[in-house]
Every structure is written in structure tokens, then in C-alpha cells.
Amino acid sequence: MGILELSGFLGLILLALSIWALIHIVQSNASTGGKVIWVLLILFLPLLGFLAWLLFGPRKAV
Fold first, then answer.
1. How far is CA 48 from CA 2, 18, 43, 45, 61, in A?
2. pTM for this structure?
């Protein structure tokens, strides 16, 4: 397996995780402005945005 196949696979995983995060952001109880900021962060900085959301992002109501 070459480096291109590996990077493509990791990119696909990152895409799936970003979509998962976006769904949870939209379903959270955060304000609309907060949701917009999180969505933009994930769209423009996928890896960093996802990690920041995972640690500090809004949580879905239980």
C-alpha cells in the first residue's frame, strides 16, 4: 500500500468524522451563532476544527 492510498483512506475517514460532527453541531442546543462558528471552523480547518469541536464543542441535549 503506497502513501497515496493511505492518505486517501485517511482523508475519507476525516470526511466521515467531519460530517458526523456537523450533524451533532446542528442537533445541539448551542446558539445559532455558535453553531455557525463551529460549522465554519470544521469546513475551513477540518482536522483542527474537528479536534477542537471534540474537546470544546457544544453537546447534544440529553
1. 25, 11, 10, 6, 24
2. 0.82
Please state, in angstroms and rounded to a whole number, the distance separating the CA atoms of residues 25 and 5: 30
Region 15-22: mean pLDDT is 95
Nearest to 49 by CA among 26, 21, 8: 21
Which of 1-5, 9-13, 23-27 has the lowest average pLDDT? 1-5
Q: What torsion, rounded to 10 degrees, do the Cα atoms 18, 41, 46, 51 define?
A: -80
Q: How far is CA 41 from CA 4, 9, 58, in A?
A: 26, 22, 13
Domain extents in the chain: 3-56
